[in-house]
């Protein structure tokens, strides 16, 4: 697999739009920038979200949360009347509305994340049950900018960031994978995200705004905080704004109070959604092959998959 040729072909696909080929060992000229796609940032590996993850748990949250709120009121009214049949019927409806979508959603596997392993300096990717990988030191990416024009939104700048991974055991089978959604991104932003990955792999897990190694995690956690907030987190966020421990984005107290009230109302739905997602994610992580899972452990093997392929006499 000629990686340089693949990169040139990818660049050519975008025609005359601005584009650049990025390499793991060459600076991008941009400061590290997180693109709100980080799912886990640990000392040993970085997990990036993939499309298809964002809406898991929503069905359970909507059906279960709305039913829980509505029929809990009925159950209380029945209890005040001493109507035990009405109470049990209300509780039965709540249980069914919660458990039916919950069991269905956690049984459907989530797309596995894109993994960057600092210990072995590799990228891991799952494609329809097949393992793909790339040594970080050989990794390259292509970033291209283009404009999408819509009838209602007008022109919007977009930029792609794609890297290549190869199939384990068959290096000639290669895939371009998207590392960050292109919508609303610029070429500089995507190059900054590649710089973020470089800083993590080379100087991480914690680094400063220039990508230099740091013993403090403040900068990294501040950058990923906005993208990591989930539905149920906003109740605490607006509570902190109201009591003065968090800065308000609008500086309008009445607006912050209304947002807080809204999140109080929708908190059960959002919390159920988040719990469902967490369980589905935990179940899905077991789909990784054993040779990947053991390399994510702090005391796991440090041999790269490409080294295993070479030891087996495969053409890599």
List the helices and strands and how they pair.
Layout: H1 3-13, E1 19-23, E2 38-41, E3 45-48, H2 58-81, H3 84-107, E4 114-117, E5 122-127, E6 130-135, E7 140-150, E8 154-167, E9 170-178, H4 187-203, H5 218-228, H6 233-242, H7 253-285, H8 290-293, H9 305-311
Antiparallel strand pairs: 1-7, 2-3, 3-4, 4-5, 5-6, 6-8, 7-8, 8-9
Helix pairs in contact: 2-3, 2-7, 3-7, 6-7
Task: Write a structural description.
Strands 1, 2, 3, 4, 5, 6, 7, 8 and 9 form a nine-stranded antiparallel beta sheet that branches. The chain contains nine helices and nine strands. The chain is globular and about 75 Å long. α2 (58-81) crosses α7 (253-285), α3 crosses α7 (253-285) and α6 runs antiparallel to α7. It is α+β, with helices and mostly antiparallel strands and 316 residues long.
Note the overall shape. Answer: globular
What fraction of residues sit in β-strands?
A: 15-25%
Roughly what percent helix?
A: 40-55%
The oligomeric status of these chains comes to single chain
Counting H and I runs of at least 4 residues, what is the number of helices?
Answer: 9
Order of helices and strands: HEEEHHEEEEEEHHHHHH
Beta-strand segment tally: 9
Sheet with the most strands?
9 strands, antiparallel
Radius of gyration: 23 Å
Structural class comes to alpha+beta
List the uncertain runs.
Answer: none
User: Mean pLDDT, nearest integer?
Assistant: 88
């Amino acid at each position: 697999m000629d990686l340089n040729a693949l990169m040139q072909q990818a660049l050519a696909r975008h025609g005359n739009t601005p584009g650049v080929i990025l390499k793991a060992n060459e600076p991008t000229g941009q400061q590290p920038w997180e693109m709100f796609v980080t799912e886990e940032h640990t000392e040993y590996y970085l997990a990036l979200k993939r499309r298809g993850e964002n809406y898991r748990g929503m069905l359970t949250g909507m059906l279960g949360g709305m039913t829980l709120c509505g029929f809990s009121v009925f159950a209380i009214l029945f209890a005040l009347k001493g109507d035990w049949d009405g109470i049990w019927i209300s509780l039965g409806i709540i249980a069914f509305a919660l458990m039916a979508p919950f069991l269905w959603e956690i049984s459907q596997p989530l797309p596995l994340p894109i993994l960057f392993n600092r210990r072995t300096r590799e990228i891991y990717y799952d494609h329809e049950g097949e393992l793909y990988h790339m040594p970080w030191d050989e990794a390259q990416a292509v970033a291209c900018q283009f404009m999408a024009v819509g009838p209602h939104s007008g022109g919007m700048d977009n930029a792609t960031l794609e890297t290549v991974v190869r199939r384990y055991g068959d290096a000639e089978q290669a895939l371009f994978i998207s590392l960050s959604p292109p919508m609303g991104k610029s070429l500089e932003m995507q190059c900054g995200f590649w710089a973020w990955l470089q800083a993590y792999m080379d100087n991480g897990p914690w680094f400063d705004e220039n990508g230099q190694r740091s013993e403090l995690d403040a900068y990294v956690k501040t950058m990923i905080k906005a993208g990591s907030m989930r539905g149920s987190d906003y109740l605490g966020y607006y509570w902190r704004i109201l009591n003065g421990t968090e800065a308000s984005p609008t500086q309008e107290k009445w607006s912050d109070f209304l947002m807080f009230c809204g999140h109080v109302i929708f908190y059960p739905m959002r919390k159920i959604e988040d719990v469902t997602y967490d369980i589905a994610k935990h179940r899905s992580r077991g789909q990784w092959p054993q040779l990947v899972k053991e390399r994510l452990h702090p005391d796991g093997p440090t041999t790269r998959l490409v080294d295993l392929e070479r030891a087996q006499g495969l053409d890599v």
